[in-house]
User: Fold this.
Amino acid sequence: MTLIRTIEKLGFPFATENPFLFCAHHKDAYPKGNNNLGPAVSLADRNLGNDFTLRDGFRMYHGRSVPGFPEHPHRGFETVTVTIKGYVDHSDSMGAAGRYGDGDVQWMTAGAGCQHAEMFPLIHQDKENPLELFQIWLNLSKKDKFTAPNYNMLWSEDIPEVTVTDRGGRASRVRIIAGTFQGVESLDPAPASWAADPKNHVRILLIRMDPEAELTLPGVSESLSRNLYFYSGDAITIGGESVAPYHRIRLAGEDDATVTAGSDTCLLLLLEGEPIHEPVVQYGPFVMNSSQEIHQAYQDYQRTGFGGWPWPVSDPVHDTGKNRFARYADGRVDRRGPVR
Assistant:
């Protein structure tokens, strides 16, 4: 088996492999904000409520006055939201809330079912509000599909980072969102996560390579699903192949993979893990093991609202000044420093 299985151009969303279900790369050049944390520009002629067309550098997605994703349900999997720039206001049916961004990661287990909103508040009125993030969906095994919903914050200042210097003195900086790299372990994922068991070899890495830097990703197992997403830079070389930016490289899981950056700084996302060897049936916001379970999910949501919606609007944003915070369903509050 060769090191490289396939190379394909990235779309929206990115193609993924089991145990990952979905990966969206959101990158929007939002303008200055107004007093309501929305864009301080006209939104005329946009298809508000379903605005996925990049116009003037940004999209409103399902938001009408503030960009983002108002109240919507999930069941049967996890969302891992990896921010790079900009901010997200979280609200959910458990009564939890938070503001995070600029390198923070939110790990949410939908489990038996919850609703949440993910809004992108434009908190700066004196400058632009660029946003860049990845939202990754990680499947749950059948035994954990109905675990209690949970969310946890992995704050940027706590996420471990390893700097690897090659023989030429060029550096690669590796942020460890999940798993281990060079003996350094990530923060704990959610307790019911497929990533919580080390034998599942789940690894999520954000990689920043200096020009011409060289970095080796160690082989793990023949059964591993390994996908490297090259999303910014001029070129990388891997397995003797030159790869242009905005491509996905599917790699053999058992072999070491040495990546060499081109003449520009190169940014990559690595998603890898052992597959969950169970049926996957996905319909909209629900991921279960059978069509009957999908049907039941819709019935349960219509009957219970997965706990209801405790917020007065479907698209809440938080009047917290410019501070990051997490308020959990059990009443705990974790306050962090101001946004930049």
DSSP finds one helix and 26 strands in the chain.
